[in-house]
Amino acid sequence: MKILLIEDEPEVASLIERSLNEYGHIVHTISNGREGIANVQKGAFDIIILDVMLPDITGWKVCKEIRSINQRIPILMLTALNSLENIVQGLELGADDYLAKPFRIKELVARLQALHRRNDLPTIHEDILEYEDILVNLEEQTVKRAGNPIKLTTKEFFLLVYFMRNPRRVLSRNSILENVWGINFDPETNVVDVFVNYLRNKIDKPYQEKLIHTVFGIGYVLKKEA
Fold first, then answer.
1. Residues 70, 135 within the same domain
2. Same-domain check for residues 93 and 114
3. What is the dihedral of CA 152, 220, 166, 183, to 10 degrees?
4. What is the rounded CA–CA span in Å between residue 80 and residue 68?
5. Where are the beta strands (DSSP E) in 32-141?
6. What is the tens place of the pLDDT at every residue in 121-175?
7. I want to staple 36 with a disulfide (CB 3.0 to 4.6 A). Which of 30, 32, 144, 174 is the partner?
8. pTM more than 0.90
């Protein structure tokens, strides 16, 4: 893999670069956010490792800018801020995975390989998903309910897509994490619940009929009320 590493701590950057080189990967290291964004604009990378704490602009802003340039490239964020609030913030801005410092190189490598495999999966060639009065245009990444446009964040959109591809099927929190984010979180985290709540506020709350239902102790399901 050709990897862009955006990390300003020389010791951490050196360790990551040296270790990934030993696994056969090519690593291009940048120490600030703006130069990292410029490299994404002009270079072709398979994956990005992005530190949250950078000297010029935050990793959050870099992540948002990268997503405006490239929607598909996997982004793994490195953070010393291992709180749910910070994790959710990164995911909302388009990150695909996070890894808290300090970390083990083997875990970093495993996460990178998982993200790369996921990104290489063949695209399902379908343009429109429909369930009841919800319509999702995959090519344009737009959503309507009862003809009304609904604006979603990137993660909210892909969470809805996962529900729309599995109507009436009970989806566990773990399956949602794996298929929407492609990662394994601490089983005690409530990241899924947070994002389902965000989605409900936009998809269900303004409408009389609720379609996203909680299955207590398991997860969630998209279906008509009985």
1. no
2. yes
3. 70
4. 25
5. 47-51, 75-79, 97-100, 128-131, 134-137
6. 444 446 889 999 999 998 888 999 999 999 988 788 989 999 999 999 999 988 8
7. 30
8. no
